[in-house]
Amino acid sequence: MTTLSPAAAADRTGVSIDTLRYYEREGLIGPIGRSAGGRRVYTEEDVFWIGLVTCFREAGLGIADLREFVAILRSDHSPQDRVVFLRSRRAALEERVAALHRAIGVLDEKIAYYG
Amino acid sequence: MTTLSPAAAADRTGVSIDTLRYYEREGLIGPIGRSAGGRRVYTEEDVFWIGLVTCFREAGLGIADLREFVAILRSDHSPQDRVVFLRSRRAALEERVAALHRAIGVLDEKIAYYG
DNA sequence: CTCGGATCTGGAGCGCGCTCCAGGTCAAGT
DNA sequence: ACTTGACCTGGAGCGCGCTCCAGATCCGAG
């Protein structure tokens, strides 16, 4: 199984080493395995999960939101509970999309005015 | 012409008095007129402009972005320059929409998995 | 005229999400 | 063995966007 050093993981994910440690402290990823000497060893699975976290961060979710997300997915909640949670998160993201479209609409008005 | 006290303006716009002052300091709105005694007097036009700023804030634009936006719209730039700027802002917002859709897609996968 | 609530200013404080630093450890090359 | 560089931990620092506070001023109600 291929594993990655902290530097390699940072390179692969586009997330800085400091931020990877921060995410781990906050419970968003990991816990990450360690080598005999105590260095972090990232698996492909870790990298995948970091990708998910990054995706949500880019979408504007906060650290607390993601912590909750991780907690729900890893807990022993029923599939129904998970779906309820996931749908509520989805609705929140749709509302952000709507806010963006409102702003884009304003820009389009201005562009039409000057264009 | 109807004008509004700070409290009324805050009530109408949903923006706190402190934040209205902050936006004014930062050059996002105003300058707001003053009464004989030095209190702020908000016009309907001010309220409209605050609405625009709020719209962009809700869409995730930062204070610096909005300051630039205001500066461009108020300056004597040519219509072409304004349109170029507005289009670049529009593209940035579209990218945010794309990021949100990626995240929504991830949620949909999870929902499909559990649902 | 007095009282109390709204507002003023300048500046401090705060939560978030990193980012950086000091001081020490581990590991590979020479 | 020695050097060098990546990595470790705990904690400080920072930029953003407010939010709150102290102390002073204004102004409408009684």
UniProtKB/TrEMBL annotation, chains A, B:
PROSITE patterns: HTH_MERR_1 (PS00552), HTH_MERR_2 (PS50937)
Keywords from the UniProt entry: DNA-binding
Membrane-spanning parts: none
Domain HTH merR-type: 3-72
Family matches, as PANTHER family: HTH-TYPE TRANSCRIPTIONAL REGULATOR ADHR, REDOX-CYCLING DRUG-SENSING TRANSCRIPTIONAL ACTIVATOR SOXR
Protein's name according to its UniProt entry: MerR family transcriptional regulator
Record organism: Streptomyces fragilis
